[in-house]
Amino acid sequence: MADDEHESETEAESEADETEREGERVMNRSDGAAILREVADGVENGTIDIEGEDGFTVDVPERFELEVEYEVTDDEAEFEVELEWPMEDGEPVAPDEEHE
User: Fold this and answer.
1) pLDDT band, very low/low/confident/very high, at 18 (cuts 50, 70, 90)
2) 7-31 as b/e, with b when 16 or more CB fall inside 10 Å?
3) Distance of CA 47 to the CA centre of its chain
């Protein structure tokens, strides 16, 4: 494994039937932008498909909450994009308009 390609993938399930998948990899801007474009295309089409050994598929409802966060400390900067929506009977549902 090259020094600039550190990978980490995790999946955790809690007692409340919660599943979390997370992946990290150091990459260059061009590769990062390509992944973000794939995610954006998936959002637009309603299905995000993350490929790979630990890949997964996410069904995205027509409407969702989008949060963008930028945080800087003395030794690190973090930029996060988060999509959030309620689930009902294991299926994504659009949030109520009053929660916008």
Assistant:
1) low
2) eeeeeeeeeeeeeeeeeeeeeeeee
3) 12
